[in-house]
Amino acid sequence: MLMAAGEAPPQCVFAHGYLLVGGEKMSKTRLNQIAPADLVGEFGVDGFRYHFLADQRFGPDGDFSYEAMVARYNADLANNFGNLANRVLNMAVGYCDGVVPATRENGPLEEAAATAFAGLTERLGELDYAGGFGAVWDLIRAANAYIEDRQPWALNKAGDTAAVAAVLGDCLEALRIVALLASPVIPRAAAELWRRLGLPGRPEDQRLPGAAEWGGLPAGSPLEKGSPLFPRIET
User: Fold this and answer.
1) Is the C or the N end of the chain the one with fewer CB within 10 Å?
2) Torsion of the alpha carbons at 201, 205, 209 and 211, rounded to the nearest 10
3) 204-214 confidence digits (pLDDT tens)
């Protein structure tokens, strides 16, 4: 058709596989179809997008199950992403007068953020969305582990306000980069996290690689706690 219209055919075509349910193709006779609107209603647009990019790899056939979607949502979005945002913002509002502190500890999260950006860009260039956004979630896990190691609540109880501010400053900067890098897959939650960090505009307005460099969160920006970005789904 392209040649008949006088247009050159494409030099490269990207084709995805089938989406299977229980190892079988969807069929009216088997009554195993998936209704996307129903899934969006339960998991939200971000939860829907994240599952199909993280669990249904581009290229080979993907196998869908509701149980796997719930498990992925709870593990990655509620427990990791949502929990990190919730605990850091809660502590920063409570311990740092609700604004981004001026001091930073500049601990291991700076290197973890650079690794996440490098992994994301490399994997997306290979159409490996699961691997690319998996690199971003490695940063989230690193930030959660960093909090457990430094224990800012214990530092606050001991009255070490400078250490509390430095640790939470690092964590807030990590959240900024997480919101930036995760915005293609969970745009609504990333934009809301961006707003709660007191940043203007939206993550997708930023320009890479400069925006992903460490230290871009302005000191003194007002912080907001808000409700959980991804409430757990109980089955």
Assistant:
1) N
2) -10
3) 999 999 999 99
